[in-house]
Amino acid sequence: MPDTVTRLDPPASRLHDDTAAAPALLSAENLKKHFPIHGGMLNRRVAEVKAVDGVSFAVRKGETLGVVGESGCGKSTLARLLIGLVRQDDGRILFDGHAVGSPQGLTLRDLRRNVQIVFQDSDSSLNPRLPVGESIAYGPQVHGMKRRAARALAHDLLRRVGLEPELFAHRYPHELSGGQKQRINIARALALEPRLVILDEAVSALDKSIEAQVLNLLRKLKETLSLTYIFISHDLNVVRYVSDRILVMYLGEIVETGPTDAVYRAPKHPYTKALLDSRLAVDPRGRIETAPLSGDPPNPINPPSGCRFRTRCPYAEEVCALQRPSLGGWQDHAAHLAACHMSDPESGHSSARQTSLPWQ
Amino acid sequence: MTAPCSSATTPLVAVDDLHVKFVDRDETVRAVNGVTFRLMPGEVLCIIGESGSGKSVTMRALMRLLPKKRSVIDGKIRIGDQDILALDERQLASLRGSTVSMVFQEPMTALDPVYTIGRQIVETVLRHAPCSRKSARERALEILDLVKVPAPERRFDSYPHELSGGLRQRALIAMALACRPRLLLADEPTTALDASVQIQVLLLLRRLQRELGMGLIFVTHDIAVAAQIADKIAVMYAGRIVELADARDLLLRPRHPYTMGLLASTVLDRPRGHDIEAIGGSPPDLRHLPPGCGFAARCGFAHPNCAATVPEPHALAPGHMACCHRLDNLPTSGTSTTQEVQNGSQVQDSGRAFFRAERHDPEHAAARDLEQGAAAP
User: Are strands B346-347 and B339-340 parallel, antiparallel or unpaired?
Assistant: First the structure.
C-alpha cells in the first residue's frame, strides 16, 4: 500500500542526511524561556516564570529520549520550544546540524516538516468541525500536496494506526473514543513524514488498557518508519518502558540524564531517587510507609537560589544554597550525569568525596 | 449474591442491586447495572475501573448527587441506618457533609474560588454543628493541622488559587473531614497530583481513615493506587462489579479475565522492545449494552454463551467474588508454572496468558476496535 501513495518531496535537509557522521538529530544548547509576569499600575514586568532555564541536550537518530518531571518543571514548554510554538529567549536549537531560525539555517516551516508533536489532550488538539481524515490530510496539503493524494495518504496512515479508513476517515472527533482520537493525532503527526516526533504526555489521559495499545502502536511505528521520539511524561513506569535515555527535569533545569537503565538502577540525583521511590507498586505487600518527599515543588516564579532542589533535599548543605550545580559533559551520549554537588568532588559537599552516594 | 463480608457487625454501607440510568429524549445510558457491595465501618474499599465503567456514578448515587431530572436510580442504598433513596432534599442536605462527605478529583473546581479556605471549612462546621464562630474557627484550624497543612494559621486566610495542588487537595480533605463523617467518599483524589505529592496524600488519607475510624470508598483508575490503600477492591466494568475481593487476593490471584488484563497491561518494569499485553478493543457503548457479559467482545476466553447471558456472581473463596461464565476454564493465576493456553501459545506468566489480542497479531486490536466502532451509531 505505501508504494501507491504519493509522497511529498523530501525536505531540503534530508538531501544531505549523513547518519554516521551526525549522531545528533536534534540538539538544544542552553535553551531558555522566561515568561514575563506583568503587574502594577504601569503594567510593568514584575517577575518572570523561569519555565526553561538553560537546558542543553541532544537526541540521537533512532533513539527515544524520555523527559520526566513533575508539573511546572518545564517539560511541556521544552516541547513547545523544540517545534517553535514558542520562541526561546536564549540558546539555540540545531536540527540535523542546521540552526533553526537563523538566516543560513532551517526555517520554521522546514523544521515542522521534520518535527511533529502529539499533545496530551486528544480531543482539543483535533478540529471538531473537520472529519478526522481531512485533519490528517490538512498538513500535507499545506505543504503542497494535491488534495486527492493527501486523502490517499490519510487513508494509508489511518490503516497504519489501526483504524479502518472506510469506517473512520469521514467521522468527526466527537464520534471517536479517547484512544481512537489519540491514534488520529498520531496519524496526523506522521502525515508530513517527520523524522522526530515529540510525544507530550501523549498517553497520559488514556485508560490503562488503551494506554498499552497506544504504546504498542508507537513502538511498531517507530520500527517501521525509523522514527526518533522525544517522550515526555510524568509517569516513570511508562518512560522507563519506552525510553533509551532519559532527562529528569526539575523547575526548568535538567537535574539528571543518562541511559534509562543506569538512571533507574542507580539514580545520582536525590530528586530522581525520590521520584523513583514515589512510584507505587501493584503489590499490596510493597506499600510505601513514608513519603520520599514532603511538600510540593516550589513556585518557578521565584526558585530557590543555588540548587533548586535544596529546599526539599534531605542532603542539602551550605554549598547547595550558594552555588548552582552544573551538568557538565552532556554532549557525551552514554554519560550518566547529575547536576548535584554530591556528584562533583570539587564542590565541597560533605558527601562529594565519598565513593558512593548516601542512599546507595 | 455472596455477601462479601459475613461478620456479625452491621455494615456501614449496604448497596443492593443498584441501577443508574441517564435518560433523555433520544437515548438511555445505562451507567450502573446491578451493583451490590457491603462496606464495614473502618474499612477501605477501592473501586477501580476505566472511564465509563460506572465507578464515579456509583459513588455519586451514594450521596444522591446525580441530576434529579435526568437520572433514574433503582435498587437499595443504606448508609448506617438510613435508606438513602427514601430521603428528601432537606434530610439529604444534613446527611451530606456530616455522615457522608466527599473528596473530588479537581480541588480547584471543588473549592469556591472567591472565599478563603478557612471560611469554607468554617461554613461546613457551622452548617452541621451548632457552635460559635470562634469555636468553629478553632475546629477548622485543628483540622487543617490534622491534614498536615503547614502553618495553618496563615493558610486559613488563603484563597484556593494561592495554594499549590497538594495543599489544595489537603484543604479539600480538611473540609470533608470537618464534621467527622462516618463515611468518606473519595473520587480519584490523587489523580491530578504529581507522583511525589500523590503518595503524600495517599498516606495522609490512610492515616486519617485509621485514626478517625471512617469507612472509605476510594474510586480510582490506577490499580497501583488501589494497592496502596485498599482493604478490599471492587473491579468495575460496563456498570457492573466483575470482581470483588480482599486487596491482596485480587492483586495476587485475580480470577476475572478483565482484572488479569488490567494487571498485565501495567507497564511497571516491563522490558523494553517487547509489546505490552494490552487488552484489545474498547469498552462497550453504554447506550447499547450487549445482552451478555460486557467484557465478552474483548475477552480471549469468551465463548458463545458469554455474549448471551450476564454471568452471575460466583463465590470463589470467602470474600472473593467474580462474575464470569468461564471461571473454570481460565488458567489460574498466581501459580508460576508455564501453561499451555487455548490458542496454543506458551506464555510464561499464566496471569497474562489470555491476551491473544496484540501479542501475535497487531491487526487484531484494530479489527476489534472496528467491531466496537461499527457498533456505535
Answer: antiparallel
Q: Which of A59-63, A317-321, B266-270, B340-344 has the lowest mean pLDDT?
A: B340-344
Are the Cβ atoms of A162 and B369 closer than 8 angstroms? Answer: yes
Stated as kind and residue range, the H or E segment containing A32 is strand A24-39
* Chain B closest-CA separation from residue A263 CA (Å): 14
Average pLDDT of the segment spanning B253-268? 88
What would the pLDDT profile of B30-69 be if each residue is shown by its tens digit?
999 999 999 999 999 999 998 889 999 999 999 999 998 8
Cβ contact A216–B276 (<8 Å): yes
What residues of chain B lie within 8 A of the CB of A260, using their CB?
A: 272
DSSP bridge partners of A232: A67, A200
Tell me which residue of A223, A2, A159, A199 sits closest to B275, measured CA to CA: A223
How many Å lie between the alpha carbon of A265 and the closest alpha carbon of chain B?
Answer: 11
For chain A, give every domain's residue range.
22-243, 253-343
DSSP state of B296: G
- DSSP structure string for B156-177: TT--GGGS-HHHHHHHHHHHHH
Give yes or no for residue B76 having a pLDDT over 80.
yes
Q: Hey, is the C-beta of A237 within 8 angstroms of any chain B C-beta?
A: yes
A274 touches chain B (CB under 8 A): yes
Q: Give this complex's ipTM.
A: 0.81
In angstroms, the CA A32 to CA A54 distance is: 5
A284 interface with B at CB cutoff 8 Å: yes
Q: Which residues pair with B124 in a beta bridge?
A: none
* Geometric angle at alpha carbon B58, from B53 and B60, rounded to 5°: 125
Contacts 24+ apart (CB under 8 A), A96-99: A96/A13, A96/A17, A96/A22, A96/A25, A96/A26, A96/A195, A97/A22, A97/A24, A98/A13
The DSSP bridge pattern shows strands B13-23 and A98-99 to be unpaired
- The pairing of strands B183-187 and B100-103 is parallel
Asked if the Cβ–Cβ distance from A283 to B251 is below 8 Å, we say yes
State the CATH architecture for A22-243. Answer: 3-Layer(aba) Sandwich (3.40)
Asked if B194 and A238 come within 8 Å (Cβ–Cβ), the reply is no
Say yes or no for a CB contact (<8 Å) between B251 and A237: no
Cβ within 8 Å, pair B196-A280? no
Interface mutation target, options A132, A241, A249, chain B, most CBs of B under 10 Å: A241
Q: Is A125 on the interface with B (CB under 8 A)?
A: no
**Nearest Cβ partner for B51 among A207, A213, A234:** A207
Say how many CA atoms lie within 13 Å of A28 toward its Cβ. Answer: 26
A231-257 pLDDT per residue, tens: 999 889 899 999 999 999 999 999 999
pLDDT at B340: 33
B278 with A289: Cβ contact below 8 A: no
Q: Is A187 helix (H, G, I), strand (E, B) or coil?
A: helix
Residue B350, strand partner residues: none
Cell numbers that stand for A201 in this block = 504526555
Whether the per-residue pLDDT at B343 is higher than 50: the answer is: no
**Residues in chain B, overall count:** 377
Burial (CB count <10 Å: 0-12, 13-18, 19+), residue A40: exposed
Distance from A28 to chain B by nearest Cα, in Å?
26
Q: Which of B14, B365, B44 is nearest to B232 (CA)?
A: B44
DSSP state of B211: H
Please give the grid coordinates belonging to residue A213.
495499545
How does pLDDT run across A84-105, given as a tens digit for each residue? 999 999 999 999 888 988 888 8
Shortest Cα distance from A352 to chain B (angstroms)? 25
